[in-house]
Amino acid sequence: MVDAPSPVLSVPGAVAGPPGTQDAAVAWHYGNPFGEQRAAAERVAIVDRSHRFVLSITGAERLTWLHTISSQHVANLADGQSAENLDLDLNGRVQHHFVLTDLDDTVWIDTEADHGPALLDFLRKMVFWADAQPREATDHAVLSLLGPRARDLTAALGVAELPDTYAAVPLPGGGFLRRMPWPTADSFDLVIPRERLTEWWGKLTEAGAEPAGMWAFEALRVTALRPRIGRDTDERTIPHEARWIGGPDEHGAVHLDKGCYRGQETVARVHNLGKPPRHLVLLHLDGSADERPTPGTDVTAGGRAVGRLGTVVDHYELGPIALALIKRAIPVDTALVAGPSAASIDPDSVPAEDAPQAGRLAVDRLRGR
Questions:
Q1: Which residue of 101, 211, 305, 356 has the fewest CB atoms within a 10 Å radius of its CB?
Q2: Strand blocks (E) in the chain
Q3: Tens of pLDDT, residues 302-312
């Protein structure tokens, strides 16, 4: 596991992430946090995410084996394709979220640094007789390019064209470029040899990518309503609460047309018969408080806890915002409090949960209704 400060922190103006947080080893910003967010949204920015934990899986059965122990349908994943995936416990609670890419007979996985060792340990314990060999890949690191002008960097990247969503193409000198559907519509990850991290940083900034810290990445991720494992989730979170339902075509991490994985029963029961007890929403926070609330703080209504606060960040247009898991029954116009801040739910962030469920329809038919 790599926990040393990133070499990119030596870039002039780099300010490390807050001590004790998941992002302490990389830059939080480079002196202009709101300008960096705008660059990532409107131009092209490069973000050092080299604190991600990377592992690889080789072996002829790597995909069919992974298919049986995780929530996503990956048994037939084509070469150069990617997906998001979850590991659930027996009760369907989310243990790990990760992104995977199959390329040239190897599955590459990246996840949060503090979850990586436990995920690797789980994978190793589940191999049994399968031809699959999970290994830590500390010699690889992640950079992200965000913004519509990423298309101007093909020459610097050494690729003929940018890949489609969840597709990946090899990069010269090793590693690959993968397109992601978030945190912006134009988001790309470079999974590259760690020894070439500063080389790639220099090459892409010289070509026009503007340095941006994790503050920018997080602000855009929050507005995209994309949760981060361990920060926007807790030990009770199930996939439906965190918007992880769906196959790769739906940009989800839980395929509903597959079975035989731990936690499947909970996923099926909620999808067919029930509703998730909470849902992930965007909160607008009162910025007049002297301090921002912290992740894990209770969100209250009338003094009663009704949710859990996740990522809190200042956005260049929206001001202080946060993700939160809020009880589904709480009306959207409820006055909320999160730590020292008054809070309100963004109505556009509330998921529609009024579609008829297949299981309920079947029960009604059996009962003649």
A1: 356
A2: 15-16, 27-29, 45-48, 53-58, 81-88, 94-103, 106-111, 133-136, 140-146, 168-170, 176-180, 187-193, 210-212, 278-285, 298-301, 304-315, 319-327, 336-338, 341-345
A3: 999 999 999 99
At 95-110, the pLDDT tens digits run 999 999 999 999 999 9
Residue written as tokens 């072996």? 59
In single-letter form, the type of residue at position 333 comes to D
What fold characterizes domain 278-368? Elongation Factor Tu (Ef-tu); domain 3 (2.40.30)
Burial of 283 (0-12, 13-18, 19+ CB in 10 A): buried
pLDDT reported for residue 259:
80
User: What gap in Å lies between CA 341 and CA 74, rounded to an integer?
Assistant: 43
Half-sphere exposure of 84 (CA within 13 A, CB side): 24
Contact 88, 24 (CB under 8 A): no
Is the peptide bond prior to 320 cis by the omega test (within 30 degrees of 0)? no
DSSP-based helix, strand, coil % in the chain, nearest 5: 25, 30, 45
Where along the chain do its domains lie?
A: 54-136, 278-368
Mean pLDDT estimate for the chain: 95
222-to-98, 101, 126, 290 alpha-carbon distances in Å: 18, 24, 33, 22
Fold type of domain 54-136: Alpha-Beta Plaits (3.30.70)
Find out whether 70 and 87 touch, Cβ atoms under 8 Å.
yes
d(CA 100, CA 105): 13
pTM recorded for the entire structure: 0.95
Residues 6+ apart with CB under 8 A from 207: 152, 153, 155, 156
Give the whole-angstrom CA distance, residue 172 versus residue 281. 40
Residue-level length of the chain: 369
Note the Cα 273 to chain centre separation in Å: 27
- Cβ atoms of 97 and 149 within 8 Å: the answer is no
SS3 category, 143: strand
